[in-house]
Design brief:
alpha+beta; three-stranded antiparallel β-sheet; 21 helices; 4 domains; six-stranded antiparallel β-sheet; Serine Threonine Protein Phosphatase 5, Tetratricopeptide repeat; single chain
Length: 561
Amino acid sequence: MTDSPTPEPAPLPAAPAKGVRIGDYIIIDTLGHGSMATVFLARDSTGHEVALKVFQEGPGVSPTMLERFKREAEASKKLRRHPNIMKVYATGQEGIYHFIVMEPIRNSRTLEDVMESNPLTLDEILSIGVKIARALHYAHTRNIVHRDVKPSNVMIDEFGEPLLTDFGVAELVDWPSCTISGALTGTPLYMSPEQARADRAGPASDIYSLGVVLYEAITGMLPYSTQHSAPVKQVLEAVKNEMPRRLRHYRKDISTDVEAVILKAIEKQERRRYPDAEAFAEDLERARTGRRVSARLTTWIERLWDLARKYDQFFAAALVMLAMAGGASFYLRQKLMNARYEKLLSTVHLRNLLLRAAPESGRSAAIEQPAAWNEIRLARRDMAAGRWNPAREGLINAIALARSVGDARTAALAKLEMARCEIMLGRIDAALSTYQDVIANLDASPVVADVAQLEAIQLALLKDKRGDAVRYLNMKPLPPEGPIREALRCLSGDLTPQQLADRLPFVPSRLQNDFHFTLAVRYRIDGNESASATHLRRAIQQSSPSSEWPAPLARMLLDTR
């Protein structure tokens, strides 16, 4: 007796393709692929074209994915009548295929694509915000919470109308939850603090996410110090704990009313946000038309009071500790002051002995070199205050003092600062000539020479002096390694802007503003003004203090766009 042959497994069904019929619809073409489903252009039995979103069961498809597709279908059917929610005609299933029949949108783009390519006017952004807020209110009144509002889930159709899409992770209040307890739902950079804590999301969560979308559309930045390239853990901590920066930090032309409305929507505490999305829409409409809004900016006193109430036991313990530390601090300060006084006396006596023992030339060097550094310090103070002419005069004195004692290294540093003053005074040729002197100075410190080379090439490219940029690049070898080498390679074309941006998380924080400025220069010469402006703003944000170079030049370039 022989064993019967083992039957071969049934072949996997092929993915839908052109000409395949699903229900009453024949596929014409593929429009796009999502994380769970594929969208096809199809024709119904009457000959009309529709968009057919198809989810195919099979190996590797989890029950949760299928459940989410069914939720999207159910939510879409409930919301089909709103003008700013993607139109859904029907839903159904045929065998292993589950499908949603939608209105085909021609020549549409996501809000994310629009924000990256063509900056929207403030009026356009607020108008989109009003319509999407009302679409969310419509969903909320039907017990549906979107939970994943972000720029890529807002479509802009051929008439410029926004459409809210993708209810794949929506919460249907009258359906059992398909989310595992403690799991995150949504996209980290746009989720609300309660979502970041893995708490249940409600209508207030959608209001927060839309507020973040509008904040980014208006300023070109997210409300946190972390941006799109940051690790997820860091993003979640920022969402939960970091207070957003004022919008007018990035754009002085927006009104305090607009700022107050957006900041109210992205309050950390749900009770401080708008009571519903319709109230948010009404305030956005008032801000758009110049009428008085209900929102107001929260004062620091109110925020401190909230913290005190939230952490009352901590503050009580801290006050006790401060009182105890205060007494000890007073005693130690007196001891420290006495010790410093004794050390100062010893230093003065030693300096006097050295001056008496030194020959005349040595005495001159000992006196004049600190004077050059003092002039540099005073000039930097003027630069921080925007007093470029006095700063330039002080740096000229510093250069002369340094040269008088043969200190070419300090002179090179002063010249680097003077080149920046020349830029801000509009003396571009003088700035380039000064940078060239620093690069050619063999006694300049390697760091100063490298920075001068980078800034000279940036300036030459900004002023369309590409021949000069090539000459500065060839004046000295690139640094053997480090961030400045990578920035120079990007400017020379050896690295793409994206490759340089990928290195940003590994760059020391003190150099990230230079990286963003380099990306702004590269995008400008490539003709991408929107991306250039975004990185100019990030260069300003990453500068600490705010007067640190290249922040003044970045502000000037933004003001003259």
